[in-house]
Structure prediction request, 318 residues.
Amino acid sequence: MTSVIRTEGLTKRFGRILAVDGLDLDVREGDVYGFLGANGSGKTTTVRILLGLVLATSGRAEVLGEEMPRAARSVLPQVGALVEGPAAYPHLSGRRNLALFDAMGRRTDRSTRKVRIAEALEHVGLGGVDERPVQAYSLGMRQRLGLAAALLRRPPLLVLDEPTNGLDPQGIHEIRQLLLDLNAGGTTVFLSSHLLAEVEQLCTRVGVLDRGRLVLQDELVALRRPTGRVEVRTPDVAVVRQLLDGVVEHQDGDTLFVRYDDPAALNARLVAAGVRVVMLAAERRHLEDVVLAAATASADRFGTEPAAAAQQAEALEK
Ligand code: ATP
Prediction:
């Protein structure tokens, strides 16, 4: 599997603050990689280092197989980036802003550029936008414009810092769909977020940052592996409890958590006994629990207060 972003011992110090602490990131081709962390955990600093906007204090960073920031000139034109809200000239229209941005990147004739800009605006749901200046845009529209700029060059890699910040639920849904479509078309996506639910819904691979340290990095399916229990929802709770005496570990209303190896066999057994099964599925670990456990383990290892780790994990909004 080809690495699209790889860092080794990446570290950034701002005076006494250790903002990024020895990161070993591994983002692979085809990933939608969710870089998850509470406010102030070092996400933006990391993204800025990857894009050559900030120099690391120590460690290495490779983007698209080349060393950053040394290879910035050849790497950056292949990366669509959205960092800390889109930069734009407020008195110009969105279309004009994109034209200026595009002109910086490479020489193309005007009609090709016009088509490309129209396509990018259409892609992010700003197709019908008039010539109104960007200063009259809502925050969500500005965010979309930033994404359009990131898409203009049809890059193989998108690096997005909190791309759904400031969007309403409809906008979040549209951007999520857009990123999934792009990914299906072969674009690797690296996005930072403080939203657990967003990462859980969108990403294939997750890295969790906690006070500058990467406390977890794995495929989402591996993190959300089955717990070995089966979740059974039924109106016949008492019957099931009697039938499965000893293996029902927990009850939450009409849902039972049963220690059982084979969900299909359990289903067959319950149905044969005349139990009405509303829902039956292998229980999976919740990302929230996995993140909390990783933060606590890291706090133990590095001698931070476990309470602080729990607080930090809770600061990740669901
Ligand atoms: P948020 O979600 O709030 O944007 P973040 O995870 O992106 O947070 P960073 O912005 O990378 O976190 O900040 C990490 C730490 O580094 C913070 O303590 C922040 O105050 C500090 N920091 C970031 N940039 C600078 C700077 N230019 N000078 C001094 N300290 C900085």
About this structure: DSSP finds twelve helices and 15 strands in the chain. The domain at 3-222+288-317 is CATH 3.40.50.300 (Rossmann fold). The first strand starts at residue 3 and ends at 14.
